[in-house]
Amino acid sequence: MSGEPAIELHRLTRSFADGRGIFEIDLAVRAGEVLALLGDNGAGKTTLIRTVTGRLRPDSGRVVINGRDPMVDAAARRKLGVVPQRIALYPDLTIRENLEVFGRLAGLDAHAARGRAAAALEWIELSTRAGSVVGQLSGGQQRRVNLAAGVLHDPTVLLLDEPTAGIDAEARERLHDLLGKLKSRGQAVLLSTHDFSEAKALADRVAVLANGRVRVEGGPEDLVFRFFGGHQEVDLTLAAPAGAEASTRLAEVGLWPGRDPTRWFGPIPGGLPALPRFVAALAAVGIVPVQAGVRTPDLGSVIRRTSGSEPSVS
After folding, report:
1. Which of 124, 156, 278, 296 has the most beta carbons within 10 angstroms of its beta carbon?
2. Is 59:14 a contact under the CB 8 Å cutoff?
3. pTM of the predicted model, to two decimals?
4. What number of other Cβ atoms are within 10 A of residue 288's Cβ?
5. Under 8 Å CB-to-CB from 129, ≥6 apart: which residues?
6. Please, what is the end-to-end C-alpha distance for the chain in angstroms?
7. Residue of 194, 185, 9, 162 lying closest to 82 (CA atoms)
8. Could you give the CA distance from residue 196 to residue 177 in angstroms, rounded to a whole number?
9. What's the confidence (pLDDT) of residue 309?
10. Measuring CA to CA, which residue among 263, 189, 254 is closest to residue 227?
11. What's the confidence (pLDDT) of residue 313?
């Protein structure tokens, strides 16, 4: 990956009356790179995607696509491919008809749209189902058609909002394979996902959002190591929320609270064998957990650390 970024976000802000939104987002994605947006529900992921696509006008800041402003430059907008979270297809049309319609909407002439649709059917391995009505397809098949519709015009930048939501593991694996092929073709991909394994498998970098701001950014494995240093993660449940003194003690041993004030997390040097000693040391200062566990930290652990919550998993 080299050269200028294909996507640049400069102090991008878009707020709503209830105080939610995105605030001063600075991100860049280069050609052939996948940047995954991770965070709790309400963290700002979908708002960010919609602002980049132009569906929401920013309060301040700039979106730059291949060096151009898509808000005023039609050529920049034509380089965008968008795959929304909800299936955006015509359920009463066939797969082929849908793809040809979306090709025309993207600016292709009739001949080019037919050709691109045929190639897309091969790519998503649904050529034998080309005449099937979309509304009768499985969820995974609809997701594949949805992805193909978003890239028919060969965009240089692809925006994906929860592209594998609501499908089974086999269908998700098929989509991951297709997304990997897009990356190898040199497209810059901005991916919003709840799926930590998806982010780890596909993303070169991850940006964790909380309350509309980027809290941390980096490679998936690098972020986990940054917060856990190769150690496992301990998960403690207290009988009641920790008071000021207990909170200080817990912080001193490297733990942080979750959204539930009785839950505390953090690295545990020595892993599971060290857990009895760890719990005994807390008991010696009057902190007695009602439950304690150890697990291998992942990107969900990073979200817990940066947003103070137990992330939801789709």
Report:
1. 124
2. yes
3. 0.88
4. 12
5. 95, 137, 141
6. 30
7. 162
8. 16
9. 56
10. 254
11. 42
Q: How far apart are CA 255 and CA 186, in angstroms?
A: 41
What the block records as the tokens of 68 is 């151009």
Whether 208 and 305 have beta carbons less than 8 Å apart is answered as no
Sign of torsion, CA 139 144 147 148? Answer: negative
Q: Which of 96, 142, 135 is nearest to 119 (CA)?
A: 96
Residue 188: strand, helix, or coil: strand
Return phi, psi of residue 48, to 5°: -65, -45
* Element holding 282 (H helix, E strand): helix 275-283
Query: Phi and psi dihedrals of 182, rounded to 5?
Result: -60, -45
pLDDT in tens, 189-211: 999 998 888 899 899 999 999 99
- The enclosing H or E element of 192 equals strand 188-192
Let me know if 227 is exposed, middle or buried by CB neighbors in 10 A (0-12, 13-18, 19+).
buried
- Residue 42 CB neighbours (<10 A): 13
What Cα–Cα distance (Å) separates residue 219 from each residue in 59, 128, 192?
Answer: 30, 39, 15
